[in-house]
Structure formats: C-alpha cells, structure tokens
Design a protein that fits this description.
The protein is mainly alpha-helical. It has one domain. Helices cover 60% and strands 0% of the residues. The chain has 3 helices and no strands. It has helices spanning 3-9, 22-70, 76-95. Helix 2 (22-70) packs antiparallel against helix 3 (76-95). The longest helix is centred in the middle third of the chain and has 49 residues, at 22-70. It starts with a helix and ends in a 32-residue tail after the last helix. The model is unreliable at 99-117 and 123-127 (pLDDT under 50). Residues 95-127 are annotated as: Disordered. Residues 60-85 form the SHOCT domain. This is SHOCT domain-containing protein.
Length: 127
C-alpha cells in the first residue's frame, strides 16, 4: 500500500487526522515561509544585479565617448554634450536609491557647495 493509502486510512479517525496535527500544520507553514523568503531573496539579488549593470553600462559609455574624442571621431563640444547627458542619467539613477541624498552623520557641514571637477585644463578654478 502506498503512503497515500496510509494517510487516507487515518483520515476517518478523529484523533489521527493528519491535517489537524500540529507537526503537519507547522511543517506546511515553515515550508511556505521558506519558499516566500527564497523568492524574496532572489528578487532582491536580481534587482541589485540589474542596477549594477546599468551603472557599469553608463561608465562604459563614457569611456567609449572619450576614446571617440581621442580618435577625432567627435569634437570636444559633442563630447561635453554627450558627457553631460550620461552624467544626468547617472545622477538621476543615484537619486532614486534609498540613501542617496543622506550624508554621513560624522561629516561636518560645509559652508560652500562642492565644485564638480572638470576635464578641461583651461578652466579657471573658482576663488
């Protein structure tokens, strides 16, 4: 006789109903929780992996534009425009992260806003 037959044979007995035994109930609950936890972890890892891939693609794109500029395929003006576009895209992606705008509690507040570095050696530094 199969185990299904043994299980169904005990259903008629009120003290041996397998669906009312705490071991079966808690085992089923534990299995369901484990499955949901595993699915949640897989979802988090997939989201993290995709976010890293998008950021890496933007940095690779900037490197490609720099090489095109060095090879003379695009002008300095075109490079600056493309760089600004990619930079906006990267910064908008960073602002959507949960802790992107939060500064560390040990950092002292600055009286002047930070200056963005430029690649242009001819630009004058602010006083």
């Amino acid at each position: 006789m199969s185990w299904w037959g043994l299980l169904l044979a005990q259903v008629g007995r009120p003290d041996k109903d397998p669906l009312r035994q705490p071991e079966v109930i808690w085992g089923t609950v534990a299995l369901a929780v484990a499955l949901f936890a595993g699915a949640f972890i897989i979802w988090l890892v997939d989201r993290w992996r995709k976010r890293l891939g998008q950021q890496q693609a933007a940095f690779d794109e900037l490197t490609e534009y720099r090489q095109m500029l060095e090879n003379g395929e695009i002008t300095e003006e075109e490079y600056q425009r493309l760089r600004a576009k990619v930079s906006r895209r990267i910064h908008s992606g960073l602002q959507s992260l949960p802790n992107a705008g939060v500064s560390s509690p040990t950092a002292a507040p600055s009286s002047t806003p930070p200056q963005r570095p430029t690649d242009d050696p001819n630009s004058a530094a602010p006083p």
